[in-house]
Amino acid sequence: KKAKRWFEQSWWGVVRLAIVEGLVCYGPDRGQQVTMVRADQWLPGKARVSEPEAGRILLRRYLRGYGPATLRDFSKWTSFSSPEAKAVWESLEEELAEVSVEGREAFILRQDGDELAASHLDDETVRLLPNFDPYLLAHADKNHLVTSRYYKRVYRQAGWVSPVVLLNGRVIGTWSYARRGKRLSLEVTPFENFSSLTRTRVEEEAAGLGGLLETPYEIKFRQPKGSL
Questions:
Q1: pLDDT score of 122 more than 70
Q2: Is 177 part of a structural domain of the chain?
Q3: Which of 114, 153, 123 lies closest to 136, judged by CA?
């Protein structure tokens, strides 16, 4: 029954099931070819953990990386069925703390509560995230990331997830880049007009990208685009 879900999705489901069961893992790439190797040969001496404990480890890591989150978010992210996700969640309830995010009930690890309470954001914290960034894929409900008006500009047809501009954790636009000769050309499309400070922060992020790639860069801000 567990395998049936994987097989019905695609041929890749066969390999994915083997990964989930810990039989194989990713090996070194061969050019553009992805390879799989036997886990017991590639990672010798690794102690196996029970399925319940593996679920708890996964939930702890998920909440540490993507919390606050809900049971529904965890189920969506893992592709666990609702009963499977609920069983893992309930087994860790003593380690969870409920918080409110804009009126929405969610959970974090209890031990992370003090650090979260002491944290703060600069008034203009801007990040440029690439397409399919994990931050954009960790929750079933995306309202805390992007308003419904602009949802389809981020989460597009055929499962495509756009590169985005974040302001204090929320999506405020999209961006793209292309190499033109020896220069890196970035194009930013705001959902609404950026403040001068936000534009400055975007330019600082672009400079960081150019520095990482050791390439001179140029940046162009397009006119804001409304909802689709």
A1: no
A2: yes
A3: 153
